[in-house]
Amino acid sequence: MKLTKYAQSCVLIETKNKRILIDPGYIAWNESLLKEHWTNIDLILVTHRHGDHCHADSIKILQDQGAKFFTSKEVADVLPELNPEIVEDGKILNSGDIKVEIVKAVHGYTPLLKDGKEIKENIGIIIDDGIRRVYMVGDSICFPNEYKCNVIFVPVCNHGLVMGPYEAALFAKETGAELAIPYHYDNPTYPVDLQKVEEEFKKQKMNCKLLKMGESIEV
User: Which domain range does residue 51 map to?
Assistant: First the structure.
């Protein structure tokens, strides 16, 4: 399984001859992504409607090229022209030999999200190819669960919207993950001390890998 991180919370997962793109957003976006990186996409999954996770123009182009788009009803209501297939916690999708599990996520709230920006429908995603389970937490604060995985992508920018480094390390440890890949720290509005991130995961004896934008790892 090959995992490639892009800006904010966007990840491309390649396994069993499938290419799955999760949360393609507007941060650091440029046309070369569609021409050189986000090609031959089979599935697009979007966790929620904020633009740093959901770049509608890119999604439309990828749909026209044959990609299937799955997301929450809230996204579908805001972007009806994309006509996605609606998914929610508990839904399981099958694509060839890959199982996609839609799981719970809880987006944090601050007054900055009032007047229509609050997220009321949010999802996490677990990709299972029969060998590895990769858990994309999405934008979420901590919540009780029993999800298990081999690799976890977990947000670390805090600011009341998602987990900070301390909570993220604890949350990741509970999943039994062999590897944690922090994300959701590319927005300059919400700066993150990446050294502190690594320190918190080290305290929990968690294997942590920071990926640059466009960097890949094989698991």
Answer: 2-218
Distances, alpha carbon 202 to alpha carbons 26, 95, 138, 151, in Å:
31, 36, 22, 16
Measured CA to CA, the distance from residue 89 to residue 125 in angstroms comes to 9
**Domains held by the chain: number:** 1
> What is 149-202 written as a DSSP string?
-SEEEEE---TTTS--HHHHHHHHHHTT-SEEEEE----TTS---HHHHHHHHH
Q: Which residue has the tokens 């026209």?
A: 64
pLDDT in tens, 98-156: 999 999 999 999 999 999 899 999 999 999 999 999 999 999 999 999 999 999 999 99
Q: Which residues pair with 127 in a beta bridge?
A: 100, 134
SS3 136: strand
- pLDDT, position 153: 98
Longest Cα separation, the chain: 46
DSSP 69: E
Return the CATH number at 36: 3.60.15.10
Contact at 8 Å (CB) between 150 and 137?
Answer: no
